[in-house]
Fold this sequence. Notes:
Blueprint: E1 7-15, E2 24-29, H1 37-47, E3 52-56, H2 60-66, E4 68-73, E5 78-79, H3 83-96, E6 105-110, E7 113-121, E8 127-132, E9 137-142, H4 144-151, E10 164-168, E11 172-178, H5 181-185, H6 191-198, E12 206-210, E13 220-226, E14 229-231, H7 235-247, E15 257-261, E16 269-278, E17 281-289, E18 291-300
Parallel strand pairs: 2-3, 4-6, 11-12, 13-15
Antiparallel strand pairs: 1-2, 1-18, 3-4, 4-5, 6-7, 7-8, 8-17, 9-10, 10-11, 12-13, 13-14, 15-16, 16-17
Helix pairs in contact: 3-7
Amino acid sequence: MILPVRRYSFVQVDVFAARPLEGNPLAVFTDARGLSDVEMQALAREMNLSETTYILPREGEIERQCGVRVRIFTTEEELPFAGHPTLGTAMVLRALHSDGGSPSSVALDLKVGKIPVEFREDPDGQVFGEMRQRDPEFGQAHSPEEIAHLTGFRGDELDRSVPIQTVSTGVPFTVIPVAGLTSMRRLRLDMAKVSEYASRHDAKLLYFVTRETEDPVARLHARMIFSGGEDPATGSAAGCAAAWMARYGIARSDESVVIEQGIEAKRPSRIFVRAGVEGERVTNVRVGGYVAEVLRGEVRL
């Protein structure tokens, strides 16, 4: 018996970039109804990008109340939340509705809950998207000496004027301030040491930042290295960094600043972030940027 061929359309975009071939690539399947969990994971491996997302359309009233259901997969596992897949998928959803007038916002129903993304059009016609992430949870502060041991940095290569701290706006990242660009460029992680340290602390993912930047407009230069390589843009970590900056006075309350990332990976990205401070509380974490469409295609199963 020959089974009918199933066809699934996808769009590939570069996120946190205003033009193609920069930023962080993402594949978005625009209607994933009928795909099993196993097939979603296999397709993510097939696309071989850091993340692939699957839009699962529902009735209009449900989507208005709960958001558009979206699932996010790496090549290895499903994620409850990730920044560039959220922004990229929201931009694709906006484009899908362009015939009936582009919406000013889209809400995604992710594993972590409902994440709204708002849009505005620049005078030159480029669309800017901005998501609101969950209010941050501040975790452990970490010893500079122990962190230096993981990186090979000398003690004076870490910026000790602000804490090394784990922050989560959906996914926990340990924000590690580095003294300058020279140290950032020679960053090498011993992943075995990182794994051992993570088993004893809450530092599962490390986000290195420095206030010395290549672009004078940027507030931070960032790198995120993991076992599979280097991430060109990490929206979830940028939200954590926004909360960290607001808490420790690197950015003013609700000040929009730019994080540059991906330069060492030859995929330059610009991530726009802001966070508010209300007394002792950090809130209203926003992460935004531009998205460039690269290609469209169809998978046949």
